[in-house]
Amino acid sequence: MKRFDTLAEMGHEEVVVCSDPSVGYRGILAVHSTKLGPALGGTRFWQYASDEEAITDALRLSRGMTYKNAVAGLHLGGGKSIIIGDNKTKDRERIFRAHGRFVESLGGRYITAEDVGTSTKDMDYVHMETSHVAGLAGKSGDPSPVTAHGVFRAVQASANRRWGSDSLEGKTVTIQGCGSVGTYLAKELHEAGAKLIVSDIDSAKAARVSKMTGAKIVEGDVIYSLDADIFSPCALGGIINDSTIPRLKVQIVAGGANNQLLEERHGDELQRRGILYAPDYVANAGGVINVYGEVAGWDAQRALDKADDIYDTVLKVFDIAESQHIPTYEAADRLAEQRLAEA
Ligand code: NAD
Does the C-beta of 176 come closer than 6 Å to ligand 1? Predict the structure, then answer.
């Protein structure tokens, strides 16, 4: 009974526990909401400590996708699936085809894609059993340029709210992480006239961005305490926390990394210190916009154009935060709930 209480509390429509012992497959498909369209969210392949932990993660991540997709203004609900096991296994075809069969059994209420521990090749196996899968090789391709463009627009919207202009000319932006998103973002910021300071644990990646944009390179934790205008986290989650917040001298935090706030209270703390935070799942929605484009048959330009709208969405979030006197991460949730209520 407790489980049904949890589902009701979190608002899930359907959670399916799937098993095919003949191929060593154990999966969970969580459909949080189909109010705005089919529930889209990736497949996470992970060795959880317990079944309970896996179910909790599926519930939490699928609800997160509902909010992310709603705020992005897409015709999509939120879902997520989990395969429990060692994601380094070589025995992938049987496992992912089993997964595909269970995805197919939901008849299109849930669309899957890549996530932690899975690859486009794994999605090809899923595709052998169902058409309800996106992020396939040779289709919408690398989402990073679209994600980075959305983050760039979030940075512009934040600059506008803080300084009254979109212009980034002469502003100093620190970027943590010179991977796929960080690199494309650095390019756009550089073209917009920003001065860049970057860090990456992989020095070759930082050097490549520096060569391309003239960015200064710093090592390790120094990135948090620099004299700069904007901090753009594009590596790991949880980097806005008790240890880093007191070091920040920037006026804006806007980046592509998922789950930037270690805990929600750290969003409250940013607000208390007058640091404007563009909520991560609003800023980095370009990734899901790109996947949606594949489902909807968009070309690459149309996905980029849609990511442009992130500018207006971020401003809307700031408006809600100001009018309701709440932190911006909470305002993003209110905006998602508003869209869901209107559906
Ligand atoms: P990536 O793996 O290409 O890049 C991450 C980079 O961060 C790597 O170069 C890595 O060396 C570096 N890094 C790791 N730890 C670091 C540290 N402590 N300090 C500095 N650098 C560090 O990943 P990505 O695709 O660019 O994604 C970056 C972030 O954006 C992730 O949090 C991801 O979940 C999120 N995100 C990505 C997309 C997308 O389209 N790729 C979409 C939405 C969200």
Answer: yes
The CATH class for the domain spanning 2-61+77-127 reads: alpha beta
pLDDT tens-digit series, residues 269-286: 999 999 999 999 999 999
Query: What is the structure's pLDDT at 311?
Result: 98
* C-alpha of residue 180 to centroid of ligand 1, in Å: 7
pLDDT of 14: 97
Ligand 1 atom showing the smallest separation from residue 284 Cα:
43
Model confidence at 141, in pLDDT bands (50, 70, 90)? confident
Please spell the DSSP secondary structure of 38-88, one letter per residue: SEE--EEEE--SSHHHHHHHHHHHHHHHHHHHHHTT-S-EEEEEEEES-TT
Q: What is the pLDDT of residues 71-108, one digit of tens each?
A: 999 999 999 999 999 999 999 999 999 999 999 999 99
Write down the pLDDT at residue 175.
Answer: 98
Delimiting residues of CATH 3.40.50.720 domain(s) in the chain: 144-284+312-342
What average pLDDT does range 15-44 have in this prediction? 97
What is the residue with the minimal CA distance to atom 32 of ligand 1? Answer: 257
Nearest Cα to 283, choosing from 232, 249, 335?
232
Handedness of CA 84, 86, 87, 90 (dihedral sign): negative
Determine if ligand 1 sits within 6 Å of the CB of residue 255. Answer: no
Give CATH for domain 144-284+312-342.
3.40.50.720
In sequence order, which residues have a C-beta less than 8 Å from that of residue 221 and are 6 or more positions away?
A: 244
- Which residues of the chain are in CATH 3.40.50.10860 domains? 2-61+77-127
Q: Look at residue 1 and tell me whether its pLDDT is greater than 60.
A: no
Q: Would you name the residues annotated as active-site residues?
A: 80
Q: Could you identify the residue written with the tokens 């269970």?
A: 102
Residue given tokens 């794994």 in the structure block: 122
Residue with CA at minimum distance from ligand 1 atom 4: 179
| pLDDT digits 0-9 by tens, 228-266 | 999 999 998 999 999 999 999 999 999 999 999 999 999
The H or E element spanning position 32 is strand 25-33
